[in-house]
Design goal:
Layout (H helix, E strand, L loop, with lengths): L2 H7 L2 H12 L6 E2 L6 E3 L2 E4 L1 H10 L11 H8 L6 H18 L3 H11 L21 H12 L3
Parallel strand pairs: 1-3
Antiparallel strand pairs: 2-3
Length: about 150
């Protein structure tokens, strides 16, 4: 199953928990929420989206494959670039960036566009905008949100 198929088969709860698990300190990749993947002096930096992609795909990005969406797309797609996977990856990255920013409406626009699980907030859970200084405690409302999904 490729990355697109995996994401499209996941529930909203699974997607939220994948983000949470990928960010729980220590995160999979060093955090800089202002980038979707960057190589600085041989060290990978990524955001919530980059870490979530690593968690779901099982691929840990390296300095050689993190620097552009095209490279990341190839890394999660058996070293083959496919425009459809690239577009899907772009929308997924934007959706997860919106999720970590507590912007569920924007997340759902992207999710609806590329057909993966929408998120509801039936309990009106207050989510903290996750930035570089987030803590594991800041992730707890996201776990609560995951557990509230129908």
């Amino acid at each position: 199953m490729n990355f697109k198929e995996k994401v499209q088969s996941m529930t909203a709860k699974e997607i939220i928990l994948a983000m949470v698990d990928s960010l729980t300190h220590p995160p999979i990749i060093n955090i800089d929420m202002n980038t979707y993947g960057e190589n600085r002096q041989g060290v990978c930096f990524g955001c919530a989206a980059t870490n979530t992609i690593c968690k779901i795909s099982g691929v840990v990005f390296t300095p050689e494959n993190i620097g552009s969406r095209r490279l990341r797309s190839k890394a999660i797609n058996n070293n083959i670039f496919d425009d459809k996977i690239g577009e899907f990856l772009y929308c997924f990255e934007r959706a997860i960036d919106a999720l970590r920013g507590s912007e569920l409406d924007i997340y759902n626009i992207y999710a609806d566009h590329i057909k993966f699980a929408l998120i509801v907030n039936p309990l009106d859970i207050k989510l903290r905008h996750l930035d570089n200084d987030y803590t594991n405690d800041d992730l707890k409302p996201y776990i609560e949100l995951a557990n509230s999904q129908p």
